[in-house]
Specification:
This protein is an alpha/beta fold and about 625 residues long. It has a single domain (about 20-620), classed as Rossmann fold, CATH 3.40.50. Helices cover about 40% and strands about 15% of the residues. Strands 1-2-3-5-4-6-7-10-11-12 form a ten-stranded mixed sheet, sandwiched between helices. Strand 13 (about 585) and strand 14 form a beta hairpin. The longest helix has 20 residues, at about 595-610. It starts with a helix and ends with a helix. About 55% of the residues are buried. It binds 2-acetamido-2-deoxy-beta-D-glucopyranose (4 copies). GO terms for molecular function: hydrolase activity. Keywords: Hydrolase, Membrane, Transmembrane, Transmembrane helix. It holds the Pfam family Abhydrolase_1. Belongs to the peptidase S33 family. This is Peptidase S33 tripeptidyl aminopeptidase-like C-terminal domain-containing protein.
């Protein structure tokens, strides 16, 4: 194979052909660099929609509906203490009233957080009661309530005692829709109640494709982000929720939840500690909490770690330092698995990853000028952009997605788009009832407001500067650099500043050592982030998981799972720099039936994170 640098160049010229390398062309192409960001949010808008893209998502054999839309949240009276009512099946729900403004005394208004609990199977005074673990599905903008309903059972099994541990702890699990998000009120919205327009906007955005799609794409996407972010930030009243949604507020809300939980248990509230498990953007919440309230840290697992300093710039070069490694793992694992396990592997069993790579790039290039027409009762067209977005998502979850991606590529190579048309339909169609906000699992508007107000004021950036930033990011990662950079484009056009945000210092001495987990090939939160963060927090431990994908959930590892369980059960930590192997590879599970069962449970949680917020921080900014 040629040198890595030459390979990057080649990849870049195929994926972004409008980005030239010489003077005149270069100047022109700067404006073409771009792609969008909002698009992916289209599919995450509605529960169930994502099943098209992640066909393995639903594993409820009896076909039960996991979420009962009939529970009447409005009838549940908000309270300044935790007043739980039974809800759904075996869960308890509450609406917790908290101050809108904790710091600046600008308003006496309040927010009502929608909160859900899966109670431990032992009472709170039982010696086996271990406390409440608070979870956040990431995003920002992911709905915690629906998330817990979806994975409560699996997470209880994962954190709870092993079958042979008669003294092990049982935990309450608590999640909530963060302020501005989901069922919490007031709700943060940019498009107001007109959600049909909002969905159509997402589809238009998707159809513009990436900046390399055409010579007009960059300008259109730039203008769309300007319109979207600009209108979201305009006519904002003095005490609008949009001014009070930075992650500092979320960390403070979590502190309140911890204290209200202690109060509910009839315990002393002044010293109650947080038990927390966060992924992706959820690690940023954890870091913020640890920096602001270090003495209140009981247990903190941060998995798929965001660098809080880079995060101020919204989309940083360092985010993508391992992305192309993740992409390369597709070629390698496919070639190694061989045909027909991997549909794109060489039929004569030549195990050369270069062949897989060449075919992948050839399909992308062919589709650019010659999209695949799908002749079915409801016609479809599969474009190169559709395919690139599918690749982007696949990098998050290789175990589930690489085999599907390989099959899709092999089909498209033959001009067969029937499989892809099913997966991509939700991106092209208004498949969810436009008025049924209850179906949503993720709020793109909240994501925009939270991301941009956590970050520095970027409104001084002009179009030329941004184009050159995007170009550099595309050089670092030809596969997703343009997709990632769009995040920043939305914030450049978002002038609204928060009342308060936390910007450091990030060095802290938490009351209990933090466990930070990074993967060797994570496409958006490289392991180096976890390593650096562990250095900033006294006695904290960095654990490396040797797998591709976003967060440790991307691949089942007995070793990682055991460390997480032991950390919550007994507070024990791995040695620094421990590496965990995984039990599975993208094109084949290793191990016995018991491991496969563990894998299945694990994958359920991973699917839900993907659907409800994991990584959505970059996917949905419009
Ligand atoms: C709000 O209060 C914080 C903390 O006291 C302060 O740092 C910040 O500047 C204030 N914000 C405004 C807009 O006054
Ligand atoms: C390729 O390898 C697979 C798995 O080892 C085997 O099933 C298949 O028959 C082989 N194909 C050829 C053409 O040798
Ligand atoms: C954009 O900003 C850069 C740096 O401040 C400046 O040199 C350049 O002239 C600006 N370009 C335009 C078109 O305003
Ligand atoms: C852990 O790994 C880092 C980076 O590879 C290295 O600098 C450090 O010395 C290692 N620490 C220990 C205790 O092995």
């Amino acid at each position: 194979m040629s040198s890595p640098k030459a390979e990057l160049q080649e990849l870049r010229s195929i994926l972004n052909p409008h980005v030239g390398s010489t003077g005149a062309t270069r100047f022109k192409s700067r404006y073409l660099l771009f792609l969008f960001a909002a698009l992916l949010s289209a599919m995450y808008h509605c529960a169930g929609r994502a099943q098209y893209l992640f066909p393995l998502t639903t594993r409820h054999e009896d076909g039960t509906v996991w979420y009962n839309p009939d529970f009447d949240w409005e009838a549940l009276k908000p309270s300044t203490s935790l007043q739980y009512a039974p809800c759904y099946d075996g869960y308890q729900c509450a609406r917790l009233t908290l101050p809108m403004d904790y710091w600046n005394g600008t308003t006496d208004a309040t927010v009502n957080l929608a909160l859900i609990k899966k109670p431990a199977i032992v009472p709170v005074d039982d010696p086996q009661y271990g406390g409440a673990v608070i979870m956040n599905p990431g995003g920002p903008g992911g709905h915690g309530v629906k998330f817990l309903l979806r994975v409560g059972e699996q997470v209880s099994n994962l954190l709870g005692p092993s079958s042979d541990d008669v003294e092990g702890k049982y935990f309450d699990l608590i999640s909530f829709d963060p302020r501005g998000v989901g069922l919490s009120t007031p709700n943060l919205a940019c498009f107001g109640k007109n959600s049909i327009l909002e969905q159509v906007w997402s589809i238009r955005n998707w159809e513009e494709g990436s900046f390399g799609t055409s010579d007009v794409a960059f300008g259109r996407l730039w203008a769309m982000s300007k319109a979207k972010s600009g209108s979201c930030a305009s006519n904002v009243k003095e005490h609008d929720i949009k001014r009070y949604v930075t992650t500092a507020y979320v960390a403070r809300d979590i502190l309140e939840i911890v204290e209200k939980h202690a109060e509910w248990r009839e315990k002393e509230t002044s010293d109650e500690k947080l038990l927390y498990w966060g992924f992706s953007y959820g690690t940023y919440i954890g870091e913020t909490f640890a920096a602001m309230y270090p003495h209140r840290v009981g247990r903190l697992v941060l998995d798929g770690v965001v660098d809080p300093i880079d995060n101020l710039q919204i989309a940083a070069f360092t985010d993508l330092s391992d992305t192309e490694k993740t992409m390369a793992s597709f070629y390698h694992s496919c070639a190694e698995a061989g045909y027909p396990t991997c549909a794109l592997a060489d039929p004569n069993n030549i195990t050369d990853p270069t062949l897989v790579r060449e075919r992948t790039l050839a399909v992308i290039e062919t589709l650019r000028y010659d999209p695949v027409a799908v002749i079915v009762p409801e016609p479809e067209v599969i474009t190169s952009n559709d395919l690139r977005m599918l690749i982007f998502l696949s990098l998050y979850h290789p175990v589930q997605m690489f085999p599907i991606l390989a099959k899709t590529l092999a089909d498209l190579e033959k001009g067969d788009g029937s499989g892809s048309s099913q997966m991509l339909r939700p991106y092209h169609d208004l498949t969810c009832r436009a008025t049924a906000s209850i179906d949503r699992v993720f709020d793109a508007d909240a994501q925009l407001a939270i991301t941009c107000s956590d970050g520095d004021d970027l409104t001084g950036y002009n179009r030329t500067q941004f184009a050159s930033f995007a170009e550099t990011l595309t050089e670092i990662s030809p596969t997703i650099g343009d997709i990632w950079a769009a995040l920043r484009m939305y914030c450049i056009h978002y002038p609204l500043r928060p009342q308060y945000r936390y910007t450091g210092p990030w060095e802290a001495s938490p009351a209990y050592p933090v466990l930070l987990i990074g993967n060797t090939m994570d496409p958006v939160t490289p392991a180096i982030n976890a390593y650096k963060m562990a250095k900033r927090m006294t006695d904290s431990i960095f654990l490396l998981q040797d797998s591709p994908g976003h967060t440790s959930l991307a691949a089942y590892s007995k070793c990682t799972t055991r460390y997480v369980k032991e950390y919550f059960q007994r507070g024990s930590l791995p040695l620094a720099n421990t590496t965990c192997e995984v039990e599975e590879k993208p094109f084949g599970l290793k191990g016995d039936a018991r491991q496969i069962a563990a894998h299945t449970q694990h994958m359920d949680i991973a699917d839900a994170f993907l659907e409800y917020g994991l990584g959505m921080r970059l996917l949905g900014s419009a």
